[in-house]
Fold ERCC4 domain protein.
Amino acid sequence: MDCTIIVDSREYETAEEVIKWIKRLSCNIIPRKLDIGDYVLPNNMGIERKKAMDFISSIVDGRLFEQSKELLHAFNRAYVIVEGDLWRALNRRNVHKHSVLGALGTLIDMGIRVLYTPDEEGTAYVMKSLVERIGNKSIKSIPIKRGETIRDTQIQFLSSLPGIGPKRAEALLRAFGTPLDALNNLGQWTRKVDNINENIVGLVRKVLTTKYGDEINNVVISIDEAIREVNEKENDDKRNRKDADNVNNKHNIMDFLGDR
């Protein structure tokens, strides 16, 4: 039986291991620029693939639910594949497990089919299995976004910044009017927009001000690593404040006992 899978051209360049395993499983790969989803399978099935860390990040910035809505509108069957150890990744982020569990429940309620795979090989095998289950059917069309407005483009532009996402992007546009004014007033984000803290601002500033191609000790710092650095700093700050509060409380108790 023929197995054909269409992959987004950007995914084709970055998910080399997945593509390699799909080919090893005797499936044909067709790279195309996809507006919605990462993979298109026969019988109008669409798949959004997320590595565990990106899945958590997309919950925080709101991308996950926007992308899921688009999948549901575009395909008869919409899947989100979570690749890797989600709970291990959660330990590296300052996100409570209840937020992740709540997000998973929301996806199910929306009608999204959520699949878990241990690695790239597992992801490839799941897609191969889905194709085999529906039989010898062809891919008749690729959904595209139509009628995109300037407003949509503005939201997408700001949403692409780390830690922002669609909801915060809209809040920034309401506060500053245009993307250019929002970027020119980066220092005011924490004062004018809820749920944006100094850590997010610092990460956005790093993206905006780092010269293209710059390296630190010949190692390129990835966005995930930068986010992890920000979260670790935030956790250190919280621990330091807690320790300081404990010391102050101890002093207050000793003062009280001394007065007696």
In short: The chain has a mean pLDDT of 84. The chain has two domains: 4-134, 150-209.
